[in-house]
Design a protein that fits this description.
Layout (H helix, E strand, L loop, with lengths): L13 E3 L1 E4 L3 H13 L5 E4 L8 H6 L2 E3 L5 E3 L5 E4 L6 H11 L2 E5 L9 H10 L4 E4 L6 H12 L5 E11 H4 L18 H4 L2 H10 L4 E6 L11 E8 L4 E8 L1 E13 L3 E5 L4 E3 L15 H18 L11 H16 L3 E2 L1
Parallel strand pairs: 1-5, 2-3, 2-6, 3-4, 6-7, 7-8, 9-12
Antiparallel strand pairs: 9-13, 10-11, 10-16, 11-12, 13-14, 14-15
Helix pairs in contact: 3-4, 5-8
Length: 341
């Protein structure tokens, strides 16, 4: 019977195939996928908070520690998954890169641009591959939608609307008021928490030129924005994109609606369907991957790039446009003005 492992500071190094920094739901998802697809791998989890141990994490992992410096790579292909609070991402990544790990950094890659250049230089010097965890780039229907936009098969685009509505209280159980999502200091708030939409917008249409963002706080004591509406300008494309990010929605809804001069195309991310004007006609009906498979695919992609010595499709450098856009949204919210990206 497997005994409970308690977090402690190890005096000896913990040699690992995978280091997972953080103990949230996304950490558990990655660990479960590794256990299923990369059997016999040694997984070490770094847990620095005083939160209660997740029994599922304990069962799935080989080691726990509260000392990130003691985790060392087993081979030159070992990977660190950075799933700590967003405000710690860059500092944690620098430690693990110095230790010799390739990096999968969960979204967002950072909460500001401080030290990002240092991390990029460090990874280049140590010949380490990096991947930002925007897993929607690996969703078949988003890849198909990108091809449709490029081919202009369904006519000229006039407008795009992106919407995501969810409720962060269901992500964090009964402890949501003390969660990362609710904490400005830890990188919470709707812009960071739901930045997948910002990233796939850039993946599909490139970085916008300007943004005007709006929010409404429910009361003066709220530390973070929970609902934000953005208007993005694309001068070269000659159309606007509206985006609605809502992490206190009563309904789980997530879509991208593209209006062209011939059709409307809707990507439904809840049902994982790509539909034409009548919302019934699927553009393609063959088998597509599900959301969890995208997490498997992104890790496999990182492994493949490590083995072939090629850059990933969303490394630190080409993740900068998403970070710039996130920071521009926040600046627009703060100054209540249109901001150039």
């Amino acid at each position: 019977m497997k005994t409970m492992k308690k977090s402690k500071t190890y005096k000896t190094e913990l040699i690992s195939d995978y280091a997972v920094i953080g103990t949230g739901n996304i950490a558990l998802r990655h660990i479960n996928n590794i256990k299923k697809n990369k059997k016999n791998s040694i997984i070490t989890v770094c847990k620095r908070s005083n939160s209660k141990f997740n029994q599922k994490l304990i069962k799935a992992s080989n080691n726990f520690t509260n000392n990130i410096n003691m985790i060392k790579p087993k081979t030159s292909k070992s990977i660190a998954i950075i799933s700590s609070p967003a405000s710690y991402h860059i500092d944690d990544s620098i430690v693990m890169a110095k230790n010799g790990f390739h990096l999968l950094i969960e979204k967002p890659m950072a909460t500001d641009k401080n030290k990002t250049k240092n991390l990029i230089s460090l990874c280049k010097k140590n010949k380490l591959k990096t991947l930002i965890g925007y897993n929607l780039r690996f969703l078949d229907n988003i890849i198909r939608l990108k091809k449709i936009i490029k081919d202009k098969k369904y006519g000229k685009i006039h407008h795009v609307h992106i919407y995501v509505g969810s409720n962060y209280k269901t992500w964090r159980d009964n402890n949501y008021l003390h969660s990362v999502s609710h904490s400005k200091k830890l990188g919470g708030g709707v812009v960071n928490e739901l930045s997948h939409e910002i990233d796939y917008m850039i993946y599909l249409f490139n970085q916008p030129d300007k943004v005007m963002a709006f929010t409404h706080k429910e009361d003066k004591n709220n530390a973070v924005e929970k609902k934000v509406i953005c208007l993005f300008e694309y001068k070269k494309l000659n159309f606007h994109i509206t985006m609605h990010l809502n992490m206190i929605s009563d309904k789980n809804n997530r879509y991208c609606l593209i209006e062209t001069d011939k059709f409307s195309i809707k990507l439904d991310l809840v049902k994982n369907k790509l539909l034409l004007s009548d919302n019934k006609s699927s553009i393609k009906k063959n088998k597509i991957n599900d959301m969890n498979q995208t997490y498997v695919d992104e890790l496999n992609h990182l492994h493949k790039c490590i083995n072939s010595n090629k850059e990933t499709k969303c490394n630190l450098v080409n993740g900068i446009p998403t970070l710039n856009t996130i920071l521009a949204i926040k600046k627009s919210l703060k100054n209540k003005m249109k901001v150039k990206i």
